[in-house]
Amino acid sequence: MSASKYTLQCNAHQCRVKLSGFAWVTACSHVFCDQHGSETFSRTPSVCPACSNMLSGKLDVLRTELAPSEQYKAMVLIGLQPETVLEISHNALVFWTYQVNQERLLMEYNLSRAGGQVLQMEKFMIQQNQSRELELNALRAEIASLKKGLEEYKQKYNEVLERLNERNRQYQKLQGLLDSLRMHTLGIGEKDPTPHTFTTGLVKQHSPHSPSFLRPEGDRFFSLGPDNSQSFFQFNTPTRDRTHSFMKKN
Ligand SMILES: [Zn+2]
Ligand SMILES: [Zn+2]
């Protein structure tokens, strides 16, 4: 930005408005908008709001037109000594340079403050990210531990299921055996009455304590245990009793 394109701004911190029309300039090289200048410099003695300099001199504060008319520009310095003209111009340029420089310093300050804020924000974000990362890692570890626990439970479940299936198979096997045993026993029970009345009678006459026709079946029951053999013999006892009664009747 070239100096001629630069627009002065009110030096009141709370204002900073771009100046046009009339403005108030001070001997301490500050400038204010018409509103702030009128408010501040109507009191005496005046104090510069920007640098707190006392402005008690008659020409320490001046209300000036920033864009004077061509007629004014044509006449204002007329008749003055060249040295005076140059001195006035020099003072005006010093003022201008000071304003541009102050503005640059202010911008640099704002930039550095914004940079500091950005750094603080970045630091804050990094801390937040680290904190979230830690939380995330803790959650990941928890999930891994839960998965492991689940796998262990699954394995235990499968083992129990396998054992249950094994028991089921054993049960089915025993059930089948029991069914075939029942069928066989019933078969004997149904077949027995008619032939036994005669056969048992005949056999009983020869050897009453050892019925030889029962032995093969009896051996099979013995192999299943004493309880089964007991029930078998109890089941057969009435048949023998009936045989006795039958025999007695005869
Ligand atoms: Zn202002
Ligand atoms: Zn000042």
Automatic annotation (TrEMBL):
Q: Name one GO molecular function term.
A: ubiquitin protein ligase activity
InterPro entries linked: CCNB1IP1
The entry's cellular-component GO terms read: synaptonemal complex
In its keyword annotation, does this UniProt entry include Coiled coil?
yes
Biological process (GO) annotations? Answer: reciprocal meiotic recombination
Q: Any idea which UniProt keywords this protein has?
A: Coiled coil
* Coiled-coil stretches noted in the UniProt entry, renumbered to this chain: 136-174
Does the record's keyword annotation contain Coiled coil?
yes
The record's PANTHER family line, in alphabetical order, gives:
E3 UBIQUITIN-PROTEIN LIGASE CCNB1IP1
- Tell me the protein's name: Cyclin B1 interacting protein 1
Taxonomic source organism = Phoxinus phoxinus
